[in-house]
Design goal:
With 563 residues, the protein is an alpha/beta fold. It has four domains: 4-225, no CATH class; 227-239 and 246-293, no CATH class; 309-323 and 453-562, Rossmann fold (3-Layer(aba) Sandwich); 327-402. Helices cover 46% and strands 15% of the residues. It has 27 helices and 19 strands. A six-stranded parallel sheet has the order 9-8-10-11-12-13, with helices on both faces. It has a six-stranded parallel sheet with strand order 16-15-14-17-18-19, with helices on both faces. Strands 6-5-4-7 form a four-stranded parallel sheet. α1 packs across α5 (108-117) and α10 crosses α27 (554-562). It is globular. 41% of the residues are buried.
Length: 563
């Protein structure tokens, strides 16, 4: 626990009273936690990071007062769902002086900010106010107490899993590691099986809070989308079975699991990976139970939709691609690679970085000659042999690269090269491309750059049009079926996917989707399907959707994981 004298005065006063009333909560508030997702602007306003986007967190007085209490404001019990910076709570204490208010926040750092901004001791002392943190909300959800719920305008959406807890009394509980849209889909699939998902925020909570939540709720399982180092050991320590579904590429090198395949961490973990090649890597690290499990779609989220004329004008096209350009990631990884090389090389860092730049450029140029086959590892081993070997032997070099292998870092740059090249070539057929700012320069080739696509309704609207929806995989993982394929087909769209063995196993090529193996074949197939027209594409898309509904839903995958 942080020493009281090290705390700001207002926070110290609040914690002093909380300690007298609820010592455990007061201690939890001072446990170390992440603060990087909250930033302050020059004018004193706060922003909150949701995935890669920063959104305004501070509320104006008008927004804080817009709480739609109804019933003439006579409530005796109110739950503030998501505190933010406490503006709504402050308003409610003023307009409802006789109400009992439960103030819940999932984020320990935000609760600390609330307690640092205003002296809440008068309301705490008279019993009007009670603070709740993380899984304390389950206590409210399981009670019969009728509450008027006041939702924070931003955080209510961020805390969607917890909002579901208040809609049904949670009996069976699964801890679900915090994450993005796919995590929400898994939570929905759990709900279909009568299991309530409760967030377990591995990135933002202290280890003590993670342990406390698990011990309080006694979940029947913990589920994570993608693996976090140390998670298997933590779950084994808590005696909670762990299921992990790896769905994203990672540049990290897996450390060996303590105890090896026979250890408690390995025996208590079932790991599923979207990429067959990763099975061997996880097994080599000591995981005893590893299985290939392809990605899937949520057909309740991704489904055919009726578009208005205005929506059809915006989302409709002959050809579309939705996805990251990978330019930003590639540049970031490039910097890590060059810095690691300079560390290993020693001497003049500028000269070392120049060497690394010239060598990696030769690798990328050679890779660009054939974008259908991934050659970066062998090419890099030829160009920077001693550096690559040092990475495998020298812990200092390993750490200088943040644990990522040199070829994984350079692979991200090659992946960006491939995507940019393929999309730029499709400019001749008027492709609409949705994604980040890295796409801006392909406009000169005839591409219509549409900007970011919302991952909920907007993505569904795009994929449900009669366009040829092109799938361009990452150059270093050509042996997977991407999420894009499943989502397009779930929406009834026509997908032209990059060929992989997995596609042959999961779909009937030519009937449920079509494929290409090279840039030249991609351009030929696009022309072919443009000539065949939208009705032919709709028929294939309908067959693809039927296949997804039958065999490739997230709910079906989850049932397999939990068996």
């Amino acid at each position: 626990m942080t020493e009281p004298t090290a705390l700001p005065p207002t926070l110290r006063r609040n914690l002093a009273l909380l300690t007298a009333q609820n010592k455990e909560l007061a201690e939890r508030i001072t446990w170390p936690c992440s603060s990087e997702h909250v930033a302050w602007t020059d004018d004193g306003q706060a922003a909150y990071q949701v995935h890669r986007t920063w959104l305004p967190l501070s509320l104006s007085a008008e927004d804080a007062a817009d709480v739609a209490l109804g019933d003439g404001g006579t409530h005796t019990d109110v739950l503030v769902f998501g505190l933010g910076l406490g503006e709504q709570l402050e308003h409610l204490l003023t307009v409802l002086p006789k109400a009992r208010i439960w103030a819940w926040e999932r984020d320990p750092w935000l609760l600390r900010q609330v307690l640092d901004r205003r002296d809440w001791t008068p309301a705490l002392r008279r019993g009007q106010l009670k603070f709740l943190l993380t899984s304390d909300l389950v206590e409210i959800a399981r009670s019969e107490r009728p509450l008027r719920i006041v939702e924070h305008p931003l955080l209510a959406d961020v805390y969607r899993l917890e909002r579901r807890l208040l809609e049904r009394r949670p009996e069976r509980i699964a801890l679900l590691a915090a994450g993005g849209l796919f995590v929400d889909d898994v939570a929905a699939a759990l709900a279909e099986q009568g299991v309530s998902a409760v967030t377990w925020d591995l990135a933002r909570w202290s280890r003590e809070e993670l342990v406390r939540v698990a011990e309080q709720l006694k979940p029947e399982v913990a589920i994570a989308i993608n693996y976090t180092h140390g998670l298997a050991e933590l779950a084994a320590e808590l005696g909670v079975p762990l299921k992990v579904w790896e769905i994203d590429p990672s540049t990290d090198v897996l450390p060996d699991l303590p105890g090896g395949p026979e250890g408690a961490a390995s025996q208590g973990t079932r790991l599923f990976t979207f990429r067959k090649g990763n099975v061997d890597a996880f097994e080599a690290a000591g995981f005893a139970h590893v299985e290939h499990l392809p990605l899937a779609a949520n057909p309740e989220r991704r489904k055919p939709t009726e578009l208005s004329p205005e929506e059809q004008e915006r989302y409709g096209a002959d050809v579309t691609f939705v996805g990251s350009s990978m330019v930003e990631q590639g540049l970031a990884f490039r910097s890590r690679l060059f810095a690691g090389y300079a560390f290993w090389k020693g001497g003049d860092p500028d000269a070392a970085m120049q060497e690394a730049e010239e060598a990696t450029q030769r690798v990328l140029d050679a890779q660009r000659d054939d974008l259908s086959a991934y050659r970066v590892p062998e090419l890099l081993a030829q160009e920077l042999r001693w550096f690559v070997e040092a990475y495998g032997k020298d812990d200092a070099v390993y750490e200088s690269l943040g644990g990522a292998s040199p070829d994984a870092l350079l692979g991200e740059m090659a992946a960006a090269d491939k995507r940019i090249t393929y999309v730029a070539n499709l400019g001749q057929v008027g492709i609409k491309v949705w994604g980040d700012a890295g796409w801006d320069h392909v406009a000169q080739y005839g591409c219509e750059v549409m900007g970011p696509a919302g991952h909920r309704d907007e993505l569904t609207a795009i994929y449900g049009t009669d366009a040829i929806h092109v799938d361009i995989g990452r150059i270093y993982q050509s042996n997977i079926v991407t999420m894009r394929v499943f989502d397009v087909l779930a929406c009834g769209g026509f997908c032209l996917a990059e060929w992989s063995e997995g596609l042959d196993e999961l779909f009937v090529i030519g009937e449920e989707l079509d494929t290409y193996r090279s840039l030249d074949e991609l351009l030929e197939k696009v022309e072919h399907w443009l000539e065949r027209g939208p009705e032919a594409r709709r028929a294939v898309g309908a067959a693809g959707r039927a296949r997804v509904l039958k065999d490739h839903t997230i709910e079906a995958r989850l049932r397999h994981m939990l068996r």
